[in-house]
Design goal:
mainly alpha
C-alpha cells in the first residue's frame, strides 16, 4: 500500500510539474511572439513562480489537487476494469492517465462558460502534450505496481 501511495504521489508530482512547465512555456511563447524579450532567466523565474502560484495562490483549486483527483478517479476506474480485461497494467494505466487529463482539458472549459483556465491547453498541440503527460504518468504508475 505504501509503495502504491508513493508511486501515486510521484506520478502526480511529475505530471503537475510537466503541466505547469508547458503552461509557462505557452505564456513565454506568446510574450516572445508579441515582441517582448524573453531570456532563460525570465523563463526560469516564470516557471518557478507558476509552480508556486498554480498550487498556492491561484483563483482555481491547486493544480496538484486537480491532477490528484483526476488520476485518483482514472486509476480507480482502471483498477476496476482490469478485473475483467486482460491487458498489461502499465498500458491500461497509461490509457487511464491520458483519458483523465484529456477529459480535464476538454471538458473543463464548457463547465466554466467556455473559458480556458489553463493557458497550456488552449491549442490542439497543448491538449495533445498534456494528454501525453497524463499517459506518461499513468505508465509510470502502472510499472510501479507489482503483479
Amino acid at each position: 500500500m505504501a509503495k502504491k501511495s508513493l508511486a501515486f504521489l510521484l506520478t502526480v508530482s511529475l505530471v503537475t510539474f510537466l503541466f505547469i512547465f508547458q503552461t509557462t512555456m505557452s505564456n513565454m511563447l506568446y510574450l516572445y511572439q508579441m515582441g517582448m524579450p524573453v531570456d532563460l532567466a525570465m523563463v526560469l523565474f516564470a516557471a518557478s513562480s507558476d509552480l508556486i502560484g498554480m498550487n498556492f495562490h491561484g483563483a482555481l483549486p491547486p493544480i496538484i489537487l486537480v491532477i490528484s483527483l483526476v488520476f485518483f478517479v482514472a486509476f480507480l476506474v482502471a483498477k476496476l476494469l482490469l478485473n475483467w480485461i486482460t491487458i498489461e497494467k502499465k498500458y491500461f494505466y497509461a490509457f487511464a492517465g491520458a483519458s483523465g487529463i484529456m477529459a480535464l482539458v476538454t471538458l473543463f472549459p464548457p463547465l466554466v462558460w467556455d473559458m480556458e483556465m489553463y493557458r497550456g491547453a488552449q491549442s490542439v498541440f497543448g491538449k495533445i502534450y498534456l494528454t501525453a503527460t497524463g499517459a506518461l504518468g499513468g505508465y509510470i504508475f502502472g510499472i510501479n505496481l507489482k503483479g
